[in-house]
Each structure stands twice: as structure tokens, then as C-alpha cells.
Design a protein that fits this description.
Length: about 250
């Protein structure tokens, strides 16, 4: 018996064409779920869909979407429903870096990061949960947050604040939507190799590795099973949680 068969389920993954989001998508498709990727880069979207549809399991499609733009979220949701007929699971994963020290902070830098990292998940959930509530069959909301939301890091005030907002959104959504059997959780990632971390000073990665108790970065293969667990019925009694996934970084 396959304890984690997601056949017949459909998931939306924002920012699902690379990095953590694509790792989520691999796990879900391999477990039988259909996946709708919402992301901005159409070339990366096409490459991700080609890779995902080569696996045995569910199918994948991608729809252009910048989560900083509400009309694009609405359009992507309509396209996903046209293609798959429903959405059972949503990974609000899209995000940007752009961390900045407080003495240098500008309104533009603050608003740009907040628009994608905080408002983006909120408005994504707005359209997804409207559909889930109307269907009346429950649902799963999983947000990509960061360990920076609970730890101090230099030159990252706007980014840290945006991810702290995601944690608050998660707890509020879990409480509000429990009556509809919709759960909401956030995963607070530590150091994984992604497009964002690739932009960091190499000395930061070296320092971070020494600070992580497990002494290594996170591995993308492990994210596949994590995504499947939170998308599956086995996580039905977990809601409102902000779980660090960081090799012990937050306790170091």
C-alpha cells in the first residue's frame, strides 16, 4: 500500500519553476498529483513542465504569474481551474531577496519585498481559499517562510519582516479556515542552494555551514517527501504551525 498516494489531487505552487518550489513539484507529481506552476519566467516554466511530465505520476502545467500583481493571480487561478478543474493544495512559495540594512532602508526596497513575500501569499490564498470554501472539501495551504523570521540576521530587515508576516498569515489562516477543514502551515527554511542564496557572498555560505549543527546545506531531494507529507491526509491534524527546516540552525 502506498501511504502517500496523491492521485486525484491538484496542487498550485507559486514560484514552482526552480529551487525549492520545483523540488516540491517533483515530489507531488511523483506521488500522482497534478501540479499547476505559477511563475514569471516562461522559459523556466517550460523547462520545469517538460521535466515534471517525464515522471510517472501526475501531470504538470505552468501559467505565467507575478504574485505582486493581483490580476495575474486571478488569471492564473482561472487558468488552473480551466485545466485541472479544482485545487486541493496550495504552496505559496514564490519569493524574492533584496534584504537591506535598516540605516539604508528605502520605502521602495521595503514595498518591493513585501509585495512579493507577504502580499503575494495573502492574495494567492485569497483566490485559492475562495475556491476551496465553495467546493466544501477542505484543502491544504503551505507557505515557504524562512528562519530569518525568527532569528536576527544582518542586512535583512525587510526580508525578515516579510517572512514574519507569512508566519502571522499562517496562524491567522489556520484559525479562520479550520471550520472549512482547510489547514495552513509554514515551513521556515534554513540554508538551501537556490537562486536567492546564489546571490549571497560566498563567505556567508561558509560561515552558515559552520553554524548549522548538521554542518551542511539542505538537500532538495529531501524536500520532495516533505511536500508530499504536508499535501497528504497524514498532516490533516497539523495546522497553524511554523516549522523550521534548517538542520538545527535556529537552535544553534
Amino acid at each position: 500500500m502506498n501511504l502517500f498516494n496523491l492521485s486525484g489531487k491538484t496542487a498550485v505552487i507559486t514560484g514552482g519553476n526552480s529551487g525549492i518550489g520545483l523540488a516540491f513539484a517533483r515530489g507531488l507529481v511523483k506521488s500522482g498529483a497534478d501540479v499547476a506552476i505559477w511563475a514569471r519566467n516562461e522559459a523556466k516554466n517550460a523547462a520545469a513542465v517538460e521535466e515534471l511530465n517525464a515522471f510517472d505520476g501526475g501531470s504538470a502545467a505552468a501559467f505565467p504569474c507575478d504574485v505582486a500583481e493581483e490580476e495575474q493571480i486571478a488569471a492564473a487561478m482561472a487558468s488552473a481551474l480551466d485545466r485541472f478543474g479544482k485545487v486541493d493544495i496550495c504552496f505559496a512559495n514564490a519569493g524574492i531577496g533584496g534584504g537591506m540594512a535598516l540605516p539604508e532602508m528605502t520605502a521602495e526596497a521595503w514595498d518591493k519585498v513585501m509585495a512579493v513575500n507577504a502580499r503575494g501569499p495573502a492574495l494567492t490564498y485569497r483566490y485559492v481559499t475562495e475556491h476551496m470554501v465553495e467546493r466544501g472539501e477542505g484543502g491544504k495551504l503551505i507557505a515557504t517562510s524562512s528562519g530569518q523570521s525568527i532569528m536576527g540576521v544582518n542586512r535583512s530587515s525587510n526580508y525578515a519582516a516579510s517572512k514574519a508576516a507569512v508566519n502571522g498569515l499562517t496562524r491567522a489562516a489556520a484559525f479562520e479556515l479550520a471550520r472549512y477543514q482547510i489547514t495552513a502551515n509554514a515551513l521556515l527554511f534554513g540554508f538551501y542552494e537556490t537562486d536567492l542564496t546564489a546571490q549571497a557572498d560566498p563567505r556567508f555560505a561558509e560561515w552558515m555551514t559552520k553554524r548549522i549543527p548538521l554542518r551542511r546545506f539542505g538537500d532538495h531531494d529531501g524536500l520532495e517527501g516533505l511536500a508530499v507529507f504536508f499535501a497528504s491526509p497524514h498532516s490533516d491534524y497539523i495546522t497553524g504551525q511554523c516549522l523550521p527546516v534548517d538542520g538545527g540552525l535556529c537552535i544553534s
